[in-house]
Structure formats: structure tokens, C-alpha cells
Amino acid sequence: MKAKTLLVLGTSSDAGKSSVVTAICKILSEKYKVAPFKAQNMSLNSWVSKDGKEISFAQVIQAWAAGAEPVPEMNPVVLKPKGDSTSQVIVLGEHYADRSAGNYYESIDEMFTILNRALLKLDENYNVIVMEGAGGAAEINLYDRDIVNIGTARLTKAPIILVGDIERGGVFASLYGTVMLLPEDVKKNVKGFVINKFRGDPTILKPGLDQLEKMTGIPVLGVMPYFKLRIPSEDSMSFHEKAGSGTIPDEKKGCGQKTGLNIAVIQLPKISHFNDFEVLESQALVRYVSPGDDLKNNGICPDLIILPGSGTPLLDLTVLKESGMMNQILELREKFNCPIIGVGEGYQFLGKTLTDSHGNVFFGFNLLDCETVYEKEEGYSEKPVRITVTVGASDKTDLGPILKQISGIRLEGFFAHSGKTKTVSPIFGDDGALGAGGLVIGTSMHGLFDNKPFRVALLKYLASRKGISYVEEEAFTVQDGFAELAAVFEKNVDMKAIYKIMELE
């Protein structure tokens, strides 16, 4: 390969590999044409390119940090779990097959070929490729079929940085143990350690760092402090960090934790495209509520309930019913006239019925006049497509207090849903439905809240209903978040050493 490469591996899942790759992509993009890469990602949080190709949102974030247009080659294989030990396999942005874990590994040679082709394509267009592994690098039972860690390392022979999460405890053992378990041809390419999520004075660690370097011959490049990342979340592993998120510290600005808006997002077991709602976190207190938990916040009804997309809609609908969450939502709707928005499969839940591919009928919330039919097995997503729609009802239906503010406005987003939903009176082109005088809104379109006209109309209405003022905050942009992360990384990690490791000027 002509491009300079770096492979970032971890001692475990959620060690911080993605944030390290994102930071390095941002820093190197000041001098080089940089592409992120991850051979395979298991995620229900995907993104759709302009030409309708599907890619994991994690690599989209990294591409944005690098100032690059996200392309499927940056994440050639995406596995979208369906809940029955089967995943939908997306290859280079297109649906490839539904495979169980065993059947998938039978095709691993073909996946290696696809991986190689994707890397060669990136090599043609970029000076630098920063690659990410998956989970823990030392999965010794998977070495013969691991395309993400060992496979990528062997194919590219890239220098490796190993990331360990000190918050989990045992970081020295995990770094040392991972290195010792790596195959010899991969171990020799490990050029540095990064310790992540440290709380406290890093000088306390120095004796341990010195011993680790002496025992392995590998330098510790830096210790990253624990801090709240203000970049989009890559997957549902981040939910444990979202407790109490979404507050504006200055209560005088109208929307803070104590005096502002309280939005509840239902955290479905197989929630998908959850980044749909992250834009709201700077404007309100956004709570991710698991089925079975109390929807009320300290006894107070939320100002808005959001039902998100799902990778296993019929299973998640059953969970909503059996956990009592469906009854909670309906009770708050009836007693407090609580507004509800459903997106993707969440929209389907709000309808009358959902019928599976075998003709079995499941009853929804019956809050919207729509019905959904799944022509294929549960979890299969239709080919995603980017769309632009105009707000307005085809039959002159009253749009209600939220949408009437933006009647005729064009909104952008994408469809990536399962099933076919029919509605009597669509509100976004030929999609979506309204109920309860415009206070129950459903749409198949992801990215709805990223449209400022809709977001402002919604939050202004919720604020006025609550008797508080609302002013759209000047947005803290995604690029601001990347710059913040890069600054922290450069302050705490030896970037000069990384340049040297990568043989960059």
C-alpha cells in the first residue's frame, strides 16, 4: 500500500478505540488526506450515503472528523443483528445476505477478499488510512477468522496502537495480557499503548507505566483523561454515559435540567438509529428510558415521548407490551395529553396493526391511522434511500400546533425501515401520519430532528405549553466536538511519536 497506515486495537469493547481513531483522523487531516477504516462493524446505528449505500455511523463520524466524504469502503462489512442469532449482512453498502454466526464464518474467505478490495480503493484516494479493530484484540478463539483485528493487521502490516480502559480496572494486566496473547507476527507491530478514561493525577500511574514499558518493550504514548465526549455516539454501548444528559447549565437560557424541557426516548432492546435524537440533548434534558422503568422524571410527566427505530420491531413491540411501557405511554397520553413522536419502526408501533410475513397480526398503540405489513422476515430493512419531503397533509387535514408552523417547508432525511406502512393522510410527502390534533406524529424518515425548522417548531411549542421561554441555542457543532477531542488528545498523548510510528513527516 502507498498510503501510510495505523491500526488502533483495544483490550476490550468500549475501551475507546473509536475516539482515539477520531482524534487522530482530525489531527492528521490538517496535513494529509485521511480516511478511517473498520473492516467489520456490528451495529444497528447506520447512515445512508447520497447514493443510497449503508455504512456504520461510527465510521461516518470518523470520516467527518477527517474531512472526508463517507464511503462504503471505509466500513465494507456491516452486521445488523436481528435478535435470533442472525444478522443482516451489508457488504459495501448493499444487502448481501442474512446469516447466522456459523454460516457467516463459512464465508470468511469471501469477506477477506472484500476487505482487501476496499483497502485498495482507499489506498488510491488517500495519503493516510487510520484503522480500527473491534472488541478485544486477543480473542484467541477467533484468530483464524477474525478480519477486523488479526486479519486487518496481517493484511496491512500496519503499526499498531493498543488502547486500554483504566475505568474497568486491571488496565496493566489487560494491556500486558493482550500483547502476550497476540500472534508473533502481529505482536511485533505493536508500537505503543494508550490508557483511556483516567480520573485523577496521571503521575500516580508512572511507576506502573515504567514497569509496563520495561516488561513489554513498548512505550506508553499517553494517558487520556475521562471527559464527556461531545461528538455523536457510535452505538448503544454509549447509553450508560447518557444518564442525565442533555442539559444546558445556564437555567436563564430557558431549557436546563431543572426549569426546562424533559424528553423521554424509549430505549428499545434493539434500538436503531438512536443518534436521531442526540441533537436534542443540547436543548433539553433527554432521558433514555428502558421498558419497565418509570417514564415520569421524579413524578413529572415528560414533555415529549419519542419511540425510536428498532432492528427487531415485533419483538420490541412485544417487550413494550409485556413490560407495561405501552400502558404507561397510553396513560400519559390520555391523562396529560402528552405529545408523542414515532420515528422508523416507532412510527409503525403507533399505528393500528403490524402484520408479519406469515400473516400474524400484532396490535399497535392505535394512536395513528396506519397499518404496517412486513413482506420479509423480521429485521430485514428495505434498501435505504435519502429523501426530501414537504410538510403538509394531502387532504387538508389540520396539521396541529407543531407542524402548522412549518407547513410547506422542505425537510431532509433518509428511509432505512423495515415493512411497508400505509396511512390515510400522509404529512411528509407520501409518508407519515398525525393523530390527537397533531400531538402524535409518526414518520419513517430518520434525521427528522436534524432539520432546524422542525426542531425549533417542536421545542417552541413544548416550551410554550410548559410556560417557559425557548430560544434555539447556538449549536455546538460536530466539528467543534472533533476539535475539542483533538485538543485533549494532543495535550495528553505523544503525537510526535505517532507521526514517527506512521513514518509521517
From TrEMBL:
What residues form the membrane-spanning segments? none
- Pfam families from the entry? CbiA, GATase_3
Q: Which InterPro entries match?
A: Class_I_gatase-like, CobQ/CobB/MinD/ParA_Nub-bd_dom, CobQ_GATase1, CobQ_N, CobQ_synth, GATase_3, P-loop_NTPase
Tell me the CDD domains matching this sequence: CobQ_N, GATase1_CobQ
State which gene encodes it. Answer: cobQ
Its protein name is Probable cobyric acid synthase
Q: Which NCBIfam families match?
A: cobQ, PRK00784.1
In the record, the note on similarity to other proteins reads:
Belongs to the CobB/CobQ family. CobQ subfamily.
CobQ/CobB/MinD/ParA nucleotide binding domain boundaries: 7-227
Classify the source by domain of life. Answer: Archaea
Q: Where is the CobB/CobQ-like glutamine amidotransferase domain?
A: 262-453
The biological processes this protein is annotated with in GO are: cobalamin biosynthetic process
Q: What is its biological role?
A: Catalyzes amidations at positions B, D, E, and G on adenosylcobyrinic A,C-diamide. NH(2) groups are provided by glutamine, and one molecule of ATP is hydrogenolyzed for each amidation.
Instruction: Specify the pathway.
Output: Cofactor biosynthesis; adenosylcobalamin biosynthesis
> Can you name one GO molecular function term for this protein?
ABC-type vitamin B12 transporter activity
Tell me which UniProt keywords the record has, alphabetically. Answer: Cobalamin biosynthesis, Glutamine amidotransferase
List, from the UniProt record, the residues annotated as the active site of this protein. Answer: 446
